[in-house]
Specification:
- This protein has three helices and two strands; from the N terminus they run H-E-E-H-H.
- It is an all-alpha fold.
- It has a domain at about 65-138.
- The radius of gyration is 27 Å and the shape is flat.
- The longest helix has 28 residues, at about 90-115.
- The chain has a two-stranded antiparallel ribbon with strand order 1-2.
- It has helices at about 10-35, 65-90, 90-115, and strands spanning about 50, 50-55.
Length: about 140
Amino acid sequence: MNIPTEQTGPFWPMAVYFALVIVLVTTMIALSYVLGQRHKGKGMGEPYESGIVSTGSARVRFDVKFYLIAMFFVIFDLESVFIFAWAVSLRELGWAGYTEILVFIGVLAAILVYLWRLHALEWGSGKMRRYQVGREGQ
């Protein structure tokens, strides 16, 4: 029985590339260790975030509003990934793809308007209302 096998290229270019990457990374780490500064100053070992020395415990509970903003960011940040992927393949998709992206952006705009109407985006002024079904007009 003759089973056709696919012809693969030589393996040595990939091995050389892998070896060069390992040598380059090792050289960079070694040079930074040898040439890097080693000094201890006041506050050098203390952790900080955004230039501010941390105080208190790391186990602080955040208000739910911060999680809400984080979820909004993730949702509306992922839309840019989908729109970028659509833009890359725009010519292959044609008018059907154009219609689909219009529907996608329309749904996202409707979600944004819905969140705006619920005052879910006003988290700094204390005016944030809880979602109540049927009590919008009261």
